[in-house]
Write a structure and sequence with these properties.
The chain is α/β, with parallel strands linked by helices and 260 residues long. Helices cover 41% and strands 14% of the residues. The model has no long low-confidence stretch (mean pLDDT 96). Bound molecules: zinc ion. The site of zinc ion has 4 residues, from loops.
Length: 260
């Protein structure tokens, strides 16, 4: 099982080494901005690395919304990030499930997701797996609650879509971690990546506030159980920089090794 961390994008391989990580996730552009990613000078080195790479798309992307001024640039930005992520040899591009605005029909949001994949298919399809991630908050989210996730996957039925399960988002979003992998897989058929995070927010608080694995409101053994059940690579998106994340990675290796 490959275990790693979300790191600063300046030198992801150095960050991986500093944490003894087998995988890293990073941004290719400002996560709060709309700027297209620039080609990376270290692309060849990244592609050749024995560290598994994942790219997280900017948070501003929301391909589900009925608001054209957000949806259309979101679609373009997602395609741009997919091309840039593929260029560095990433194994997947993680993007949040998005939401519609209050009063808007969530069914249209799911169909907007379908249109996003159709739009990509028109230009040859996404060049790497797109991993849709569950989110913690909001009443109109496409991938917070499993009933919505089921409708999203129904809408995307014709396309190859991956899934990234974030343990903090699930807990804070109001989904019990016990048995969650089976319930998710019954919908998606797959879990491509685990974001292993504890949660500062309580169960169903809707708060997206990550904590280190042995802190927070989730029993750390439940996070370990999710990872074991999913059998997927793991990225911690936890605070504390090198020290905090290295401790989280070591904790997981210890737990997973101890009773694997
Ligand atoms: Zn996450």
């Amino acid at each position: 099982m490959r275990i790693g961390a979300h790191v600063d994008p300046t030198d992801p391989l150095a960050e991986a080494a500093a944490r003894d990580a087998e995988a890293v996730q990073f941004f290719l552009a400002d996560p709060q901005g709309w700027k297209a990613p620039k080609p990376r000078e270290d692309a060849e080195r990244l592609r050749a690395a024995d560290v598994d790479l994942y790219v997280h798309a900017p948070y501003v992307i929301n391909v589900a919304t009925l608001n054209n001024r957000i949806r259309i640039p979101s679609r373009k930005l997602l395609l741009g990030h997919a091309a840039a992520a593929a260029a560095v040899g990433a194994r997947g591009l993680i993007v949040h499930g998005g939401h519609v605005n209050a009063g808007d029909d969530l069914a249209v949001g799911f169909d907007n997701w379908r249109k996003t994949f159709a739009y990509a298919a028109d230009s040859g399809g996404f060049p790497l797996p797109i991993l849709i991630e569950n989110t913690a908050g909001g009443d109109n989210a496409c991938a917070r609650h499993l009933d919505a996730l089921g409708r999203l996957w129904d809408a995307l039925g014709d396309y190859e879509v991956g899934f990234c399960l974030d343990t903090c988002h699930a807990h804070a979003g109001g989904e019990e971690l016990l048995g969650l992998v089976d319930r998710v897989k019954a919908i998606t058929g797959r879990i491509d990546l685990i974001h292993a995070n504890n949660s500062k927010g309580t169960f169903n608080s809707g708060q997206d506030r990550h904590d280190n694995l042995t802190g927070g409101t989730i029993d750390p053994e439940l996070v370990v159980a999710v990872i074991r059940a999913a059998g997927a690579p793991v990225i911690v998106e936890t605070p504390g920089g090198v020290e905090g994340q290295a401790a989280d990675i070591a904790f997981l290796r210890g737990q997973l090794g101890a009773a694997a």
